[in-house]
Amino acid sequence: MGLQQDVGDVSVEDIRLERVGSSIRDEIYRQLQPGSGNEKRMPTMLLYDEKGLKLFEDLTYLEEYYLTNAEIRVLEHHAAQIAERIVPDSILLELGSGNLRKVSILLQAIERAEKDVHYYALDLSLSELQRTLSVTPHGKYKHIHCHGLLGTYDDGLEWLKQPRNLSKPKCVLSLGSSIGNFDRLEAAQFLKKFADILDVRNIVLVGVDACQTPDKVYRAYNDSEGKTHEFYRNGLRHANRLLAKEAFTPEDWNILGEYDAVAGRHQAFYVARRELEIAEINFAAGEKVRFEESYKYSKAQSDRLWHNAGLAQGAVFGEDSGDYCMFVPMDFCFS
User: Fold this and answer.
1) Could you give the CA distance from residue 110 to residue 298 in angstroms, rounded to a whole number?
2) pTM of this prediction?
3) CA 297, 180, 333 angle in degrees (round to 5)?
4) Dihedral pair phi/psi, residue 199, rounded to 5°
């Protein structure tokens, strides 16, 4: 922890408390042996290696993947209003920064407002941070100071708690639909961790996938070009690299995406095409291994999320389709 690298004029600090690869490797074996009566799973984090991040970026340009375009529309219409709520000299921490395509809209609004802030892009992939931060034009911003942080969400939370950061005003950005990758209880617990370090100067900006149209959701994760399924299949290849052996032959597995109307989520599985034995773990032909869930939030479900996280709903920024919203929830202490 603490190793710093420079990418042009931008520094990247390694804030990892543990090496992610080894922890994911342990999770593979743990989740594939869940105990009697429970379904087998694999960690969603397998999807987001260096290649997976690039595959995911590609699929966000698909028309069927409605989320990114809806989010961009929200930011284009409301970035100035969001920027108004950010205190000068704030730390802007983006959880899972990706390619900066969306957050740059907000950064430009903050620049126009002439607010000095420090933007920190948090990501698990050093190469992805180097790639995206290196294309930030030198001299583009006068008021925005860009930095990179290498680590997980939990690493980012611990970094915010450091004495040098705890006293500073903060804006935590959870863009995209990352909150939907947690189940509803886990999502509330995740947000509460950040709520616990809020004071009156701090805000959290949370993007929520609000689409309630099952077919539209299904097509977003099962696109006609097969790009999302290739992104999913890369998770098996990543597992092989972590395990240092060809444990999962991609041709032995089908990809299955389903919309679960009762739970309000899309869910994805690897499905064994034949009987398999991997590391003394048996898989029946047709057995499903869950590896991703993407929860969608109605108005009532969003209200419940804030309540369970100990937050009160503050400002809401949406767009015409109603498929995507950004929320600025407030700590009950300051609402």
Assistant:
1) 30
2) 0.91
3) 75
4) -130, -175
